[in-house]
Amino acid sequence: MNRLRRSENCYHPWLPFISLLGKEVNRFCRVYTQTLITPVIIASLYLFVFGATLGNRISVVDGFSYAQFVIPGLILMGIINNSFSNTSTSLFMSRHLGNIVDLLVMPLSPLQIVVAYTLAAMLRGLVVGSAVCVISMFFATLPWFNPWAALSMAMLASFLFAQLGLIAGIFSDSFDGLAMYINFIILPLIFLGGVFYPISILPPFWRQLSQINPLFYLLDGFRHSLLGVGDLSLAHSFIFTGILCIILFSATVLLIRYSSRFRS
Amino acid sequence: MSSALEINQLSKAFTGQAAVKRLSLSIKDGEIFGLLGPNGAGKSTTINMIAGVSRIDSGSVHIFGHDSVVDCQHARRLTGVMHQELTTDAFFTIDKALRMHPGFFGVRADAQWRELLVERLELQPHLHKPMNCLSGGMKRRFMLAKALIHKPRLLILDEPTAGVDVELRHTIWQFIREINRHDTTILLTTHYLEEAEQMCNRIAIMNHGELIALDSTTALLNQLDARQVRLLLCCAIDHLPPQLVQHHARLDDGGKTIILPLQSGETVCAVLELCRTLKLPICDVETCKPNLEEVFLHLTQPDRYPQRQACR
């Protein structure tokens, strides 16, 4: 009976945050075939198609093979897709299965919740991106013009799409609704943002339209960091992406704080 | 005795429809407190606001002196909640979940405490199964273990025995009583009123979002002045003596039983003395008093259940 007697527990204010982050990392590691291996295989297939087969017949940027051109885009695509999927799926599934109540009763501030989810998503995105990067070495050699800028841009990309994933997870009410965000927003942004072609080869109207696509700035900045050439200056890409990150992060924290879709 | 939970003028509405209306109550430290009410009375909404699952429209909740909004981090770490809905998490086994859960509340995992919960709630054979592979009863046990794993000082149980078999219900209540004896305040809702009657020191009854009764269980039971005496006769009689008719007595069981409502303050001895003077052939006596279910029905549906009519 005395074993039931409560001993005073020491409260560690940061432990809930660290535990939530650990849970989110654990979650995607437990289903690694789906969350890590599958995206790497998909990216490898793209690399094979564009690097070893079609790529030899296409040339879009002077001085670089098509494989060299497309690899930064494929790495970033892996990062973006997986960061977005991690937060959106985790939050949506929690709401769908009802275990979000476990999150709601935790002694965590909205800021801590957003940061914990974001860091786990960034980790997954960057692990997939790194794996694609390693595999791409078998298909082409990149000049690595500015590796730190490339890493920073990759982190900003994963951060940005983790926020979008949280927003999608809050607003989706069904699996269809969640798929809609991916099929009608994320994929068009990726494919029209210059993963497979430089914006500069587009007609003027489409080029201008592409400039309102935030992916364009991310992709151009990342490609510029790796290849040393881009449609925009690196500073331009970083400033635009940085501002977008701040706006979306603030919006996400406010949604978690005030939205009745998260806490009724 | 200090307050474990202090609710003051708590209100909540969903799309303009009031779910909880200016609810105020206080639960003492160490108490087992029952919150009862028919479906839709606002019990779960109240519990959700206390636990932080729902926002508070107006009013306040203090848990061991910590405001649940302003000082939510301290308030929540002191609270354990077993929710009414069976939720699942397919990603983790229950062993993993029980290891992770204390951290969510800012306390380090205590292996001995975890083992005790596993042992007492008989979770051992299922430790390495994911939660979605457990039966309904096992999920309830796991949810109770999860609510207790960070050693909360206030344990909130929202219909903990809904849909569980008699044996498990007995196990759960026995364990909750033990937990309560060791410094844990319990707030519970249940539809099993007999259990609430046995378990709770005090009971609040809600209806249409409002508090309609709050008293000790004994005082609530005494609210209905419906004590009755059943006089079992050795041989049947054809009609009641006029003195008993004046007492609103009636005959039952083909004239072999007299049912006599006791007036306020009237004793069974006085009734027996009256029967002796009337030379009634009494061979046995039964007394009945209202149970919580009758009090509950009387309070929540006074038109349909004004007073009890007969012993059951």
Task: Give a written overview of the molecule.
The complex is a heterodimer of chains A (264) and B (312). Chain A is mostly helical. Chain A contains ten helices and no strands. Chain A has helices at 15-30, 32-53, 66-97, 100-104, 110-136, 147-171, 175-191, 204-210, 214-227, 234-258. In chain A, helix 1 packs parallel to helix 5 and helix 6 packs parallel to helix 10. Chain B is of the alpha/beta class. Among the domains of chain B are: 3-78 and 152-221, P-loop containing nucleotide triphosphate hydrolases (Rossmann fold); 228-288. Chain B has a six-stranded mixed sheet, with helices on both faces. The two termini of chain B are 39 Å apart. Classes of the chains: A mainly alpha (264), B alpha/beta (312). The A-B interface holds A 1, 3-7, 9-13, 15-16, 18-20, 22-23, 26-27, 30-31, 97-99, 101-102, 104-109, 260, 263-264 and B 14, 48, 51-55, 72-77, 79, 81, 83, 85, 87-92, 96, 100, 103-108, 110, 112-113, 116, 146, 150-151, 153, 178-179, 181-184.
Summarize the structure.
With 264 residues, chain A is mostly helical. Chain A is built from ten helices and no strands. Helices cover 33% and strands 27% of the residues of chain B.
Give keywords.
heterodimer, A: 264 residues, mainly alpha, 0% strand, B: 312 residues, alpha/beta, Rossmann fold, six-stranded mixed β-sheet, four-stranded antiparallel β-sheet, 14 strands, 33% helix, elongated
